[in-house]
């Protein structure tokens, strides 16, 4: 059954009657440009064909009742004062969005809402951004609030910062809002200008879920972010005009890296070179040079492993295994790291062999069953038709 139908049924069971609208926002996989977004740099994600659906109906009393069909749990709150409740952690996302809408001065009525999704949870495919954007898109449509897709992405990022407490960049919410079928989204995270880059039909974007979830991932993430800020502070002694690592060209980084303590220097090196890799990737993809792009994916992984230190044995193993399959052009960890998924660029004709070989070897060596998703690049948030 389609996601829209599943969420409609969940809504009927939970609230009786029909929703007024159903919105949908996708998960994402990032092709290249990792940990660059909060350094005001470049990213190249794809919205995938796994998504979160939200069914909503307004109510007159200023209360919000939200049901998660994935968790089989409820939460209820006043739209004017949502509060965190550790017994329903998933509810932080819809509550965070409501809280941001209200604090930005928008008038919200009460509502009943059911949520269902097939983005794997906690796997690094941005199920949280998908929830946020689907909820925001649905509420904005229901209450006639004038926000465009970029505004919605920014609002959802603020929800994540202020309500959830993760100081994420803009990539996930942006691509969940503005992704495009058959295209990757090349985004400048400073001015939010973007372009769509076509993906060749000869290759598939294959995601491998390592099955590893790290505790403390969000504190390690916030720590990386702080280290990048520290690098900028120190480099400003000689480069006073820089506002972020995005502004540091390779030559200047190489000339002044001696000013940085060892660890901070490696963090900064990753960001400086990763930004260059994104810019080169876009050129290579436009030229149809998939092999060249694949090589940059491997380089990105090495840099995330050695300099940024956000990989782990399982992700490294997945990249190694992938690279030994004929027809794999590139492989790297995707998303924040610390567990989660790898993204692989695989010639279409080799996908089957890839799935069989990597799945078998990974399970043999780790005891973990590998989930593999062959992804289609899809559209960002939308309202479902025909409701
Ligand atoms: C998480 C964050 C993004 C981005 C990536 C790393 O997915 O939500 O903003 O920083 O990690 O590239």
Write out the distinct hetero groups bound to the structure. Answer: alpha-D-galactopyranose
Low-confidence stretches: none
CATH superfamily of the largest domain: GHMP kinase, C-terminal domain
Number of domains: 2
Please state the second-level CATH architecture of the largest domain. Answer: 2-Layer Sandwich
Span of the ends, CA to CA: 16 Å
| Range of strand content | 15-25%
Architecture overview:
The chain has 387 residues and is an alpha+beta fold. It folds into 2 domains: 167 residues, Ribosomal Protein S5, domain 2 (2-Layer Sandwich), CATH 3.30.230.10; 173 residues, Alpha-Beta Plaits (2-Layer Sandwich), CATH 3.30.70. The chain is 42% helix and 25% strand. The protein is built from 11 helices and 12 strands. It is globular and about 60 Å long. The protein starts with a helix and ends with a strand. The model has no long low-confidence stretch (mean pLDDT 96). The protein binds alpha-D-galactopyranose. Alpha-D-galactopyranose (GLA) binds next to helix 5.
Task: Chart the SSEs and their pairings.
Blueprint lengths: L2 H13 L5 E12 L9 E18 L3 E6 L4 E6 L13 H12 L6 E8 L9 H16 L6 H16 L6 H8 L4 E6 L5 E5 L4 E11 L3 H19 L14 H7 L5 H26 L2 H17 L6 H11 L4 E7 L4 E9 L3 H16 L4 E5 L6 E2 L4
Parallel strand pairs: 3-5
Antiparallel strand pairs: 1-2, 1-12, 2-5, 2-6, 3-4, 6-7, 8-10, 8-11, 9-10
The site of alpha-D-galactopyranose has 10 residues, from α5.
What brief labels describe this structure?
387 residues, 2 domains, 11 helices, four-stranded antiparallel sheet, binds alpha-D-galactopyranose, Alpha-Beta Plaits, 25% strand, Ribosomal Protein S5, domain 2
